[in-house]
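haha ok so turns out i had the wrong file open the whole time. this is the CORRECT one, sorry everyone. sequence first:
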Amino acid sequence: MSRIALVDDDRNILTSVSMTLEAEGFEVETYNDGQSALDAFNKSMPDMAVLDIKMPRMDGMDLLQRLRQKTSMPVIFLTSKDDEIDEVLGLRMGADDYVKKPFSQRLLVERIRALLRRQEVMVSDEAGEVETAQVLVRGELSMDPLRHAVTWKGKDVALTVTEFLLLQALAQRPGFVKSRDQLMDVAYDDQVYVDDRTIDSHIKRLRKKMRSVDDDFSAIETLYGIGYRYNEE
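then structure:
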């Protein structure tokens, strides 16, 4: 049973969404501000967090920044209906996905299940047994799916689940172009729609992380209007 942390200062959302998630078989922990959630996470990290952005004491952005210093667990943001700045900023800071308020609880459940499946597939097969997945090496890049570990020039790079999957999809076939639609299929289930901006934001975040260990990192190339490709260095 996956543990989902739901963090929002709206008690109606906490009550209704937690009831829905529990009915779907999840174990749910609720918090009405970011600081309370962080205090609990420091003792025991959940399998996934769903965070509102605007909250008292510590908002969702600050909480995400703290979390990304210690974990790559999937994070979904709940954003305001018309606040595109929050959506893009959240993705660039390391969120895996976002859902706009007011939202369909069925949509949120689908997004949660999609991210959890993506995380699980990297470490287990359909029977739940450990795979014999090989480490992917492309020039200075090394990716170990079983350990969710990435190194560039021997230096560790901490990636989220979505960032890992996107980099893996690009690096598996150096020189070949992956369209945004193809990358969406890698990171999200077919029934979950995301727009181009979401993929672009994840790629920008991914590049930023790689450049944090190597200022000259340029292996991910943008082909405007087409997609992205990995160039082995």
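The first helix runs from residue 11 to 23.
again sry for the mixup
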